[in-house]
Specification:
Blueprint lengths: L6 H19 L6 H5 L9 H20 L10 H4 L15 H19 L4 H32 L21 E3 L2 E5 L14 E5 L2 E3 L6 H9 L11 H10 L23 H10 L7 H9 E2 L4 E2 L45 E7 L24 E4 L16 E3 L8 E2 L3 E3 L2
Parallel strand pairs: 7-10
Antiparallel strand pairs: 1-4, 2-3, 4-11, 5-6, 7-8, 8-9
Length: 414
């Protein structure tokens, strides 16, 4: 007798299928060489990411939860996150074999979902969906990076309502407490627990820093003047000798698009150049999510409605859009582009909130609480909807430029 699925199971099944559809779409026009290639030494091949998605799904839902024996033990070392160095992950099964592996795993996973005790496991199922979402974005980033490496700069997306260049009038965020983090079933371990934070008054840019604004920094010799750089940032610059963002097109048509492909050090230097600074993670999250009129936290800057037309995400556009192109997505305080378009660097180090408990394993978040990773917020044009929310936290080394990251600035009296 087939058990009737609960609404929650139906929702999870749909999310699993929709998420997988997005991931496979990324591979539709990929040749074998790209599938196996390590596009950047700090990242695994995109073919590895695809296999790792299936491996992780099987590990936690079939082995750990359903108590099934390993389906593909011969691939365990290859696809485990701590199995092989990234440079050794190029010896992969063929694209067809990898897809077959994922199909076999998914068939068994959906069959198990019919009888799974979802009341006990729902958090884990959401984790798996978000795990694939994160790796899907990494795949999109690597394909984007490959285009640039091949000097095949992506075309400027044609957006129907580009708007005029935004005014650079900072928004005052009054002093007071707000709720930070999340206790929702979808919340990952590093987002928990929801807690109150009190912040003094500060001012935040209504938009991410644009290409037009950043061009002024370049033109003023910002990359040649140690005055604007921290000691660590200047050392990084001498070791890397860059003169502009990684994803840079010197085209006035992009002046009201957000600058991206910048390291934390570059974002910090620009902020000093204009007499501002990068926001703390708490300052960013308050400006994005707090509804002061109702003293409540919003899931998204615009409210509780799932993201569709309110922001540039999910590879719907395939590149950046003007920073003021989505007025429907503005936050309570009047900030644009807090979700989607480009990730935003903050000045905060990635660490656990008070009472942090790892889930489902220490290697997801806890090992990165090492004082070497800065927090990024907001998502990008390639972020899947299941990981797009104000409380979501991303983290990278401050010298990384390959990710789709920009920033906005703040000022304060303290």
């Amino acid at each position: 007798m087939k058990l009737t699925s609960t609404p929650s199971k139906d929702a999870i099944r749909t999310a699993l299928q929709q998420c997988r559809s997005r991931t496979l779409k990324l591979f539709e026009k990929i040749d074998d060489a790209t599938f196996y290639q390590q596009i950047h030494p700090d990242f695994s091949p995109i073919g590895w990411h695809l296999g790792h998605i299936g491996y992780t799904e099987a590990l936690w839902l079939l082995e750990y939860s359903a108590q099934h024996p390993p389906l593909f033990p011969q691939y365990r070392q290859l696809y485990a996150a701590d199995g092989l160095p990234k440079k050794e992950r190029v010896k992969l099964p063929t694209p067809a074999q990898t897809r077959e592996l994922l199909e076999i795993i998914r068939e068994k996973v959906l069959k198990y979902l019919e009888i799974a005790p979802l009341q006990e496991q729902e958090r884990l199922w959401h984790f798996i969906i978000q795990h694939e979402s994160q790796h899907g974005e990494t795949i999109a980033i690597l394909l984007h990076l490959q285009q640039w490496n091949q000097k095949n700069n992506p075309q400027i997306p044609q957006f129907s309502n580009p708007g005029s260049l935004p005014k650079n009038e900072m928004i005052e965020i009054p002093a007071g407490a707000f709720e930070m983090g999340s206790d929702a079933i979808e919340a990952l371990d590093n987002e928990r627990s929801r807690h109150y934070r009190h912040l003094q008054t500060y001012w935040i840019d209504p938009y991410p820093v644009t290409c037009g604004q950043y061009r002024e920094f370049i033109a003023a010799g910002g990359y040649d003047n140690p005055k604007w750089w921290s000691l660590e940032g200047w050392e990084w610059l001498q070791a890397n000798a860059v003169k502009q963002p990684l994803y840079w097109i010197d085209n006035p048509a992009l002046d009201n698009h957000p600058v991206y492909g910048v390291s934390w050090y570059e974002a910090d230097a620009y902020s000093r150049f204009v007499g501002k600074r990068l926001p703390t993670e708490a300052e960013w999250e308050k400006a994005a999510s707090w509804d002061a009129a109702n003293a409540t936290k919003r899931l998204y800057p615009w409210g509780e409605e799932k993201p569709t037309f309110q922001c540039n995400h999910d590879i719907l556009i395939g590149g950046t859009t003007p920073v003021n192109a989505y007025p429907e997505g503005v936050s309570f305080y009047g900030c644009y582009d807090m979700l989607g378009n480009v990730w935003e660097w903050t000045c905060s180090w990635f660490e656990g909130y008070e009472g942090f408990q790892f889930y489902p394993y220490p290697g997801y978040s806890q090992i990165y609480f090492d004082g070497k990773h800065r927090v990024l917020k907001g998502g990008s044009w390639a972020t899947y909807p299941w990981v797009l929310r104000c409380s979501f936290r991303n983290w990278y080394h401050p010298g990384v430029r390959q990710i789709l990251a920009g920033f906005r600035c703040v000022k304060s009296e303290y």
